[in-house]
Sequence to fold (153 residues):
Amino acid sequence: MNYDLISETIAFIQTAHEGQLYGELPYFLHPIKVANNILNATENEYLAALLHDVVEDTDYTVSDIAEGWNTEVADIVALLTKDDSLSYEDNISRIIDSGNVSAMLVKYSDNQINQRSDKSAMKPARAERLNNQYEISSNRLFTALVANKTETE
Fold:
């Protein structure tokens, strides 16, 4: 792993997400948790995890990611960026149907972190709905990852 590049990426997301919060914490801590949650991540998976919300939540584009990092990272981030014309479930299907294992791993990790996040400030019904959504999509992603691993062995 290129730790200088990872440090530069963390500095970038800290600036890109400036002023945004994840619960009560600075938002840039969320993608760091997502990246650190991926066991044996490749460098590109780790970088994509750090950058996974940049296009969705800031003015940066997939082209900016490709120029600043590489096309593989940009492709993963593009898959992870929510398509507002699709439901959450359909966005998960889009990731799975792509066959991009790296995107599936990052989204699986993101769902795990989101499911474990503090939702005490939310109305209980909303917190339960989100946790159910994350659990269902995590199960779908896990099943797809296992199926992909079985196919490649």
